[in-house]
UniProtKB/TrEMBL annotation:
InterPro entries recorded: AB_hydrolase_fold, Esterase-like, Mycobacterial_A85_antigen
Upper lineage: Bacteria, Pseudomonadati, Pseudomonadota, Gammaproteobacteria, Alteromonadales
Signal sequence region: none
Protein name stated in the entry: Alpha/beta fold hydrolase
Coiled coil: none
GO terms of molecular function: acyltransferase activity, transferring groups other than amino-acyl groups; hydrolase activity
One Pfam family linked to the record: Esterase
Keywords: Hydrolase
Length: 265
């Protein structure tokens, strides 16, 4: 196991249903924080939804800027099945890691794929080796969700991306950090389409973007590229920009999408 050390919050001191983790990974030689919502459920083998943040962000953003737990609880009252929401840090390098295996040897792909799953399974009683995992992200996290979902299709039962960065070049819209920082260990690692083409069988895939978002054009182009390659997916365009009010609203689409997959199990 690549986890060197693991710290877990005490439930008596944290907000209801929330557990906080700090994971020291040998893949990155860094400490990573994780927010886990619905962590104290008494159910067993619950499905897990990973929610990945964008540039500048951290593990707390999905809840405390996007109200992910508020969306989840509202949908639960409407009949949504139980899920555990797992919200990891991307790794804390520069403005963002891209969730990539970087040329400097720090592997943020393995942090999400290996360490995150191991840490959550070890510490959260309602998650087990039998739990099904889903992956979602916004902006840079959307890029990460698309890339990791396509690269490791057997790990996930569904993939969703909101307002996704579709290439490393898109990050220039949000950060002045040298693009070379995001150079993967192998250059093709940072491209999306080769992973979709390479995958033998992909889980259900959806993406959406606001029509006022600066990434709308690149998301349209990605959808066309996937269509041209015969990659089955759905793309939805809504009113809205690159902003938390949009992601708060449309997280509902992701959770309902994953719920429908669960109902088909």
């Amino acid at each position: 196991m690549a986890i060197l050390r693991l710290e877990q919050s005490d439930n008596q001191y944290t907000p209801e249903k929330l557990t906080l983790l700090t994971v020291h990974s040998s893949h990155t030689s860094r400490r990573h924080s994780v927010s886990v919502y619905n962590a104290q459920s008494t159910s067993k083998d619950l499905p897990v939804v990973i929610l990945m943040h964008g540039v500048y962000g951290d593990h707390w953003c999905w809840m405390h800027l996007g109200g992910a737990h508020v969306v989840y609880e509202r949908l639960r009252q409407q009949g949504l099945n139980e899920f555990v929401l797992v919200m990891p840090s991307d790794g804390g390098i520069g403005d963002g890691s891209g969730y990539l295996p970087l040329a400097n040897g720090e592997d943020y792909d393995a942090w999400v794929t290996d360490d995150l799953r191991a840490a959550v399974t070890k510490t959260i009683d309602c998650v087990s080796a039998k739990s099904r995992w889903y992956i979602c992200g916004l902006s840079m996290g959307g890029f990460g969700a698309l890339r990791l979902g396509a690269k490791y299709p057997d790990n996930y039962r569904g993939i969703s991306a909101h307002s996704s960065v579709t290439s490393i070049a898109d990050l220039k819209l949000f950060t002045d950090v040298d693009e070379k920082l995001f150079t993967a260990k192998v250059l093709a690692e940072s491209e999306l389409l080769p992973w979709f083409i390479k995958a033998q069988s992909l889980p259900p895939l959806r993406l959406d973007c606001g029509m006022q978002d600066e990434l709308y054009g690149s998301n349209l182009a990605l959808s066309k590229t996937l269509n041209d390659a015969g990659i089955k997916h759905s793309f939805e365009a809504f009113s809205g920009g690159h902003e938390w009010s949009y992601w708060h609203q449309h997280l509902e689409d992701t959770l309902n999408f994953f719920n429908q997959i669960e109902l088909g199990q």
